[in-house]
Amino acid sequence: MTPVANAGAPRAERDHVEFPDISWTAFDRYARYGALARAITANLGPGRHHALDVGDNSGYLRAFAPDLDVVSVDREGNDRPLEGTRLVLGDGARLPFPDGSFDVVVSCDALEHVPPVHRGGFLQELIRCTRDLVVVAAPFDTPGVAGSEELVRRFVGAVTGAPQPQLGEHAEHGLPSLDSTERTMGAAGMRVVSLGNGNLQDWVLGMFVKHQVVGRGGFLDLDIGFDVFYNMALQDRSQVGPYYRHLVIGRRSSEPLTGAPPIPPGPTLDAASLLGAILTSAPGSTGALTALAAVQEQQAEAFGHLMARLEGVEGALQHLMQRFDGTDGALELLLSRGDSAGPVNKGGRLSGLRRRLRREDDRP
After folding, report:
1. Which of 71, 107, 81, 66 is nearest to 1 (CA)?
2. How far apart are CA 89 and CA 129, in angstroms?
């Protein structure tokens, strides 16, 4: 498992930022864990609720909701978890806890990595271990998501020269069904509500930007800088459709069930144009365009040399054809004269040559 990349102390400016202490984290993670934290607070209220996060080994839920008493479960450990992480090694399909051990059980971008035949059992385990609330966040098979992931997956391979394993596994398993997930939770006696999370267009452009700079030595600060910018200036767009992922919230008790409250609106920015400009100016993009221009210039120069040589060959060929035309005329004149007796046609040699030439001309 890749260690958690902690960017250090957050910026001092805290106004208008929902989760300022964790604003350095990846923009996509900020969107999904922010939505989880808001959904828990909206339904259970503030307080030290007992929470289980299935599929995370780094302690992100606690970072977004410090008041929660969080236990994380994952199949693998992490040698650099966030401070205060309590990790239990285990399988989400066989959770090592008694029934109803937690006030809330969440799973964040893990369901799509579960093989399809085990997804129902995985959801049943989340439901079994909660006393009240279950929140499942994942990219589901909703319009546009699979195509966007395939574009990003192939882009990452082309830019970095290495596969993107998470998206590769999404493609291998297929994305989970939103309707099926809602039915499974409803069949277990839970009331269910779903809401979108993460603007799909921003997710594609953001992944393009990050993979242009990540893996190119010396650009880690720029990678994190993009995340801080998005999380502090554009995070309200995570509630603007079309969506990359959805949250499915199920509640067992009779208490009111609600989705996460809206994020206060951020500054008015033309996000699509802004992200597009960042993408085209990112290190790697400029280098690739410069390299492409250099290749095109070299090809044009080579083509010019080739054409110059061909023009010389064409001139020589025309000169040679002119000489052949003169020779052909002289030969015709000579042959016409060779029909009469005389020294030049001694023994009928020119007549024989003319007959052979005519036979050559008659061949297909």
Report:
1. 81
2. 16
Output the pTM of the full model: 0.75
CA–CA distance, 233 with 226 (Å, rounded to integer): 10
* Spatial distance between the Cα atoms of 43 and 31, rounded to a whole number of angstroms: 19
Pairing of strands 191-199, 243-251: antiparallel
Q: How far apart are alpha carbons 264 and 119 in whole angstroms?
A: 35
Tell me if 106 sits within 8 A of 248, measured CB to CB: no
Burial label for 114, CB within 10 Å (0-12, 13-18, 19+), is: buried
Per-10-residue mean pLDDT, the chain, length 364: 56 87 94 96 95 96 96 93 93 95 98 96 98 98 97 89 92 97 97 96 90 66 86 91 97 92 79 75 54 50 63 66 64 57 49 54 53
What is the C-alpha to C-alpha distance for residues 88 and 140, in angstroms, rounded to an integer? 27
Domain boundaries, given as residue ranges, for the chain: 20-266, 291-362
One-letter identity of residue 296: Q
Domain 20-266 = CATH 3.40.50.150:
yes
At residue 127, φ and ψ (nearest 5 deg) are -65, -40
Q: What pLDDT score was predicted for residue 328?
A: 61
Long-range contacts of 15-24 (CB under 8 A, 24+ apart): 16/232, 16/264, 16/266, 17/231, 17/232, 18/235, 18/263, 18/264, 19/63, 19/64, 19/231, 21/63, 22/60, 22/63, 22/64, 23/227, 23/228, 23/231, 23/232, 24/224, 24/227, 24/228, 24/231
